[in-house]
Amino acid sequence: MPLLEARDWFIFKTKDGHYFVQKAKGDRCLSVGVIIPAAGQGKRMGMGERKQFLQFHGQPVIIHTLALFEGLPEVDEIVVVTQEEEIARTQKMIEEACIHKVTCVVSGGKERQESVYLGLKKIRTDWVMVHDAVRPFVSREAISRLLKVARMHGAAILAVPVKDTVKMVDDAGVVEQTPDRKRLWAVQTPQAFRRDILLSAHEQFLKWDAMATDDSMLVEEMGIDVRVVEGEYTNIKLTTPDDLFMAEAIYQMRSKKK
């Protein structure tokens, strides 16, 4: 929560004593960038190709994702983070698809967290969204809702209520606990933050030599509230071959609506 709320500004104090001053009420003059981590191996897909480069209706999956953000007037800059050996191929794909908001394609790290940090050091915007390269179906409406809430509170994520009962299971396969499903949300991307808040959180985790499951966890550990914005179940991440069947169904459904 804000330490101090003035008419137009929020002042946040984090656990380590840092302060962040943030414009309130959705100041649209502040620039927005997108970091696309695309350095994953995609081993679970089992296709012999990195999942972000799989062809889907005439274009690599990553191009479908980039084209969405390219068309958003709210977005000023995009930074793609991929493996060193894939930079040239990624740049060529971007040029051929006429994606103009990508300012650079940089080499990523061994872990996603490191890749996002390297992207943060390159991006120049006041606000940043972090989005999986293999989530090509996030809607413009969901992104708009996300940015609105993030601008009010400093940090926000897309998520959907969990539909199935979830069990906590030990190493022997025995159920230990059944959490209350009403309080469980499945987190998606994009996740939106003030760039300075997210950068400081990443740098703090580097000092701790610690890893987080996603970027919002980094910010949570800084003592800053992360707001949840309800997303859409169609915003799937393409991870396994089964996801490609779901992706085709979503694509066909949306094509009929056009």
TrEMBL record:
GO molecular function, one term: 2-C-methyl-D-erythritol 4-phosphate cytidylyltransferase activity
Primary enzyme class: transferase
Keywords, comma-separated and alphabetical: Isoprene biosynthesis, Nucleotidyltransferase, Transferase
Functional pathway: Isoprenoid biosynthesis; isopentenyl diphosphate biosynthesis via DXP pathway; isopentenyl diphosphate from 1-deoxy-D-xylulose 5-phosphate: step 2/6
Site feature location: Transition state stabilizer: 44, 51
Membership in a protein family: Belongs to the IspD/TarI cytidylyltransferase family. IspD subfamily.
Function, as annotated: Catalyzes the formation of 4-diphosphocytidyl-2-C-methyl-D-erythritol from CTP and 2-C-methyl-D-erythritol 4-phosphate (MEP).
Protein name, entry field: 2-C-methyl-D-erythritol 4-phosphate cytidylyltransferase
Organism the protein comes from: Thermoactinomyces mirandus
